[in-house]
Design brief:
The complex is a heterodimer of chains A (131) and B (415).
Chain A lengths: L30 H5 L6 E7 L13 E5 L9 E6 L2 E8 L5 E4 L8 E3 L5 E11 L4
Antiparallel strand pairs in A: 1-2, 2-7, 3-4, 3-7, 4-5, 5-6
Chain B lengths: L1 E6 L2 H8 L9 E4 L6 E4 L1 H5 L12 H6 L3 E4 L2 H16 L4 E6 L2 E5 L6 H16 L3 E6 L2 H12 L6 E3 L3 H10 L10 H9 L5 H5 L3 H19 L16 E12 L2 H21 L2 E11 L8 E12 L2 H15 L6 E13 L11 H21 L34 E4 L1
Parallel strand pairs in B: 2-4, 7-8
Antiparallel strand pairs in B: 1-6, 1-7, 2-3, 5-6, 9-12, 10-11, 10-12
Helix pairs in contact in B: 4-5, 11-12
Classes of the chains: A mainly beta (131), B alpha+beta (415).
């Protein structure tokens, strides 16, 4: 992952007064630092389909997944169910684990004890492009 | 105490991270050209598929048991390696990255080694999906032995060898051929002297060992006795030589295609030299008609007056050498370029005949090529002599996507 905003362009030599901004040049913004808290455990993927649109995750969005985190109730996660990847909201309220879609057309998935289920990682951000 | 952390079936494990449907199923990774098996998941091992076995030999087993087959994807494995190594190094005071999938760790000051190893293994598995084996012992050589025992331990892949009694017990069961640093020739020699297990070696006198196995052998035996002789190599070492060689999918019987292949390998070597800020003083090119020892081989060494990392210069030497050794009666199956006598670029001394202006211009050109290729993919900007026809390219039919390094290759996951 190497997203980096370039530093603002400041010419090295200026006739007249030195730029008052010169001492502050390292205050640029790094999207890397903002979106990736733990680089060795962070992976990206494309979201597909419609089941999470009411949560703001649309088809074609890039999701950023941190595998080092353990899921808390209501986190968005990447799950592996019977060998297949899924993006859903994780719910462990009460005694049962449920995978909740955010589109009324899709059913809630109840995780049974004998299900082949695993949390692959926690979705920490999603990126959406408008043009 | 030293730990050796080694990723289990590393290439196969990398392929599985983004293919969870392959967990519990047999997976193999084939070498360049999809020729030989170079990595196997445990399930593939259980089917009796051997390391280094030509793929065509196992075709029947592959089909019968639905073995999942991949071409080597070093971009993917390299990225996972970096992730694993960075987690390991942030958890111990010192680390020596020994290869793409193993590292020695200094566990000094860590009180409960078993607990620590278990937690470290768990962390790497959770964060990256890659399972590790960890062997802990007083020396590097013993930690290597502990690791091979950890691999066979099905429950947690951790093995701690701390006490002399237990170390000796295991040394007696450890064949000398499996000791790190003892090759098959030395094994044969020692076997003929009646030495079969590691413990027998530790009982010999230093003088005897040094006579039979030289000073490096003595260090190795001392390490087996639990006396640390090999330190962790923390500093990055300049490579002694860089090799780029490939086996062709189909034999090549004309100098044009051969030249395209060879000059491409020359460009790859030169780019690797520049990446390390190094220059090479000697270039070696080789051609072979067969991958086994039997085939016809020819080679040539070129010694330069001034060490270089300039692609064009290395290419032109290679082309000339190729014309010298090419024999139109043969069909070649393999070719390679090795650059050696490597020195730091900053220490290169120019001769009176070198034109410094030209050299500087060419350095800028190389730099520009490297920047573009870094951005858009290896060999995207190439020299005309490299050609474009991928006829001689290795087969990589079963290549997985570069899930972690290429934005267009990101995994698509259903919401």
């Amino acid at each position: 992952m190497q997203l980096k905003l370039s530093k603002p362009y400041l010419p090295k030599i200026m006739a007249g007064f030195p730029s008052p901004a010169e001492d502050f040049t390292d205050l640029s913004i790094s999207l890397d630092q903002l979106l990736v808290k733990n680089p060795p455990a962070t992976f990206m993927a494309y979201a597909e389909g419609e089941s999470m649109i009411n949560m703001g995750i649309h088809h074609g969005d890039i999701i950023i997944v941190d595998r080092s985190l353990s899921p808390r109730n209501e986190d968005i996660i990447v799950a592996v169910l019977e060998g297949e990847f899924l993006i859903k909201q994780f719910s462990n309220a009460g005694d049962e684990i449920r995978l909740i879609p955010h589109n009324s057309k899709y059913p809630i998935i109840y995780i049974k004890e004998d299900s082949d289920f695993q949390v692959w990682g926690v979705v920490v951000h999603s990126i959406r492009s408008y043009r | 105490m030293i730990a050796l952390a080694d990723c289990n079936n590393f290439y196969a494990s990398c392929e599985r991270v983004f293919r969870p449907n392959l967990n519990g199923k047999p997976v193999v990774v084939l070498s360049n050209n999809d020729g030989c098996v170079i990595a196997r998941s445990n399930e593939a091992k259980a089917l009796g598929i051997k390391m280094g076995e030509p793929a065509f030999k196992s075709r029947y087993i592959f089909e019968k048991y639905e073995v999942h087959i991949f071409s080597t994807n070093f971009v993917l494995y390299g990225d996972f390696s970096n992730r694993v190594m960075s987690i390991l190094s942030s958890n111990v005071p010192e680390i020596e990255v020994y290869s793409i999938d193993e590292a020695f760790l200094n566990l000094e000051g860590i009180p409960n080694k078993k607990q620590f190893s278990l937690e470290l293994r768990e962390k790497v598995l959770k964060w990256t999906g890659i399972p590790l084996s960890i062997g802990v012992a007083p020396t590097k050589v013993l930690s290597k032995m502990a690791n091979s025992m950890a691999k066979n331990q099905s429950e947690n892949n951790i093995c701690i060898l701390e006490h002399v009694d237990s170390i000796n017990r295991h040394l007696k069961e450890f064949s000398i051929s499996k000791i790190w640093g003892i090759g098959w020739q030395l094994t044969k020699k020692l076997n003929s002297m009646g030495i079969y297990n590691a413990y027998q070696l530790t009982e010999k006198s230093d003088l005897w060992i040094q006579k039979q196995m030289a000073i490096t052998g003595l260090r190795l035996v001392k390490e087996l006795r639990g006396e640390p002789c090999l330190e962790l190599e923390k500093k990055w070492r300049r490579k002694k030589s860089i090799t780029t060689s490939r086996t062709f999918a189909h034999g090549i019987d004309n100098i044009r295609d051969l030249s395209k292949a060879l000059t491409t390998y020359a460009s790859i070597c030169a780019a690797k030299l520049r990446k390390e800020n190094s220059c090479a003083k000697s270039i070696y090119i080789m051609l072979a008609t067969d991958t086994s020892r039997r085939g016809h081989k020819s080679s040539k060494i070129i010694n330069l007056n001034t060490p270089t990392n300039d692609s064009l210069e290395i290419i032109s030497h290679c082309t000339e050498a190729l014309r010298n050794i090419y024999n139109s009666n043969y069909t070649y199956k393999r070719a390679g370029v090795i650059v050696s006598d490597i020195v730091p670029q900053s220490k290169v001394q120019l001769t009176v005949f070198d034109k410094t202006d030209d050299i500087e211009k060419r350095q800028h050109l190389m730099q520009a090529i490297d920047i573009m290729n870094h951005k858009h993919g290896r060999l995207r900007v190439r020299f005309a002599v490299n050609g474009y026809s991928p006829r001689w390219h290795p087969h990589q039919e079963l290549l997985s996507p570069c899930y972690t390094t290429r934005i267009s290759d990101l995994k698509r996951i259903k919401g």
